[in-house]
Every structure is written in C-alpha cells, then in structure tokens.
Amino acid sequence: PNVDFYAASVYGYLGIPTDIFTTVFACSRVSGWTAHVREQYADNRLIRPDHAYVGPDPRQWTPIIER
Questions:
Q1: pLDDT tens-digit series, residues 19-60
Q2: How far apart are CA 34 and CA 11, in angstroms?
Q3: Is position 23 within any domain?
Q4: Is residue 14 part of a domain?
Q5: Distance between CA 23 and CA 52 in Å, rounded?
C-alpha cells in the first residue's frame, strides 16, 4: 500500500470527513512541491534522477503468441 493508505487511517481517526481526504493529503504536500519548483527554477533543469540501466543484459524478445 502507498502512503495514502496510512494517511486515510489517521484522517479517519482524527474525524476528518472522507470527502476531503484528497484535499488534506494534497495540502500536506504543497511545501514539498514548492521546494521542487524552487530548485528547478534555481538552475533551470528538470529534476530527474540519473538513469543508467544496471540489470541483466538484454534478452531476446519473444512474441506473446509464442510464449
């Protein structure tokens, strides 16, 4: 389960109406989203992790009909 699962349990315990769970969850994320935007504006680059495939060598592709 993702963090929404646990957040919903806490929101329910606190008596927050279920129809505003999404709003409360989004509000709790605004500071993080704002920090990401500010970081991106600082150096004008999209925030993406370095990516390099480190898994096993490529395998032969088998069509679905042959699997």
A1: 999 899 899 889 998 998 888 888 877 767 777 888 888 888
A2: 23
A3: yes
A4: yes
A5: 36
Q: Compute the distance between CA of residue 61 and CA of residue 12 in angstroms, rounded to an integer.
A: 48
* Alpha-carbon span 63 to 8, nearest angstrom: 42
Total tally of structural domains belonging to the chain: 1
Q: Which domain holds residue 30?
A: 1-46
Q: Report helix, strand or coil for 67.
A: coil
What is the rounded CA–CA span in Å between residue 4 and residue 10? Answer: 10
In a domain, 60, yes or no: no
Q: How far apart are CA 42 and CA 64, in angstroms?
A: 47
Domain-located, residue 53? no
* pTM for this prediction: 0.50
Q: What angle do CA 54, 56, 57 make, to 5 degrees?
A: 105
